[in-house]
Structures are given as C-alpha cells and as structure tokens.
Design goal:
This protein is rod-shaped. By secondary structure, it is mainly alpha-helical. Strands 1-2 form a two-stranded antiparallel sheet. It has a domain of 37 residues.
Length: 76
C-alpha cells in the first residue's frame, strides 16, 4: 500500500498541469493560438499570438485596422 501512495500522489499533483497542457495543445491545433494568447487577445482587444511573434519577428499583440483606413507616413 505504501508503495502506491507516492506514484498516485505524483499523478494527482501533475494532473492539473496535464489538463492545461492538453487544452493548450488542442487550442494550438485548432486555432493556432495557446490559451494564454486567447486570454491576452480578450484583454487587449487585439490579435495576440506568441508563435507569430517569435517566428515572423512581429509584435506579440497586433491591433487590426479596417482595410479602408490609411495612415499618412509621409514626412512632408
């Protein structure tokens, strides 16, 4: 009985992390974003994506603008 207490307690202790990791992997497979990315997007009202930021070297959160909106970047 004592031999089972330690492995069972380790499995139960890690089960919360395993559930979050599994949900995050499933989220990346379906949407391309982790759960943290979805939470950041919800809070900032922007498109946040860690994978895009690390691979494409862009910002973590990008604010989407309307297609008809243009910005004058001309210095003159």
């Amino acid at each position: 009985m004592k031999r089972l207490i330690i492995p069972v307690s380790l499995v139960l202790a890690l089960s919360g992390c395993a559930v979050y990791t599994g949900a995050s992997v499933g989220s990346v497979a379906v949407t391309g974003k982790t759960i943290g990315d979805h939470a950041s997007s919800l809070v900032t009202q922007a498109d946040c994506n860690a994978w895009r930021a690390s691979i494409e070297l862009t910002y973590y959160c990008e604010y989407l603008r309307e297609p008809g909106t243009t910005y004058n970047r001309n210095g003159y």
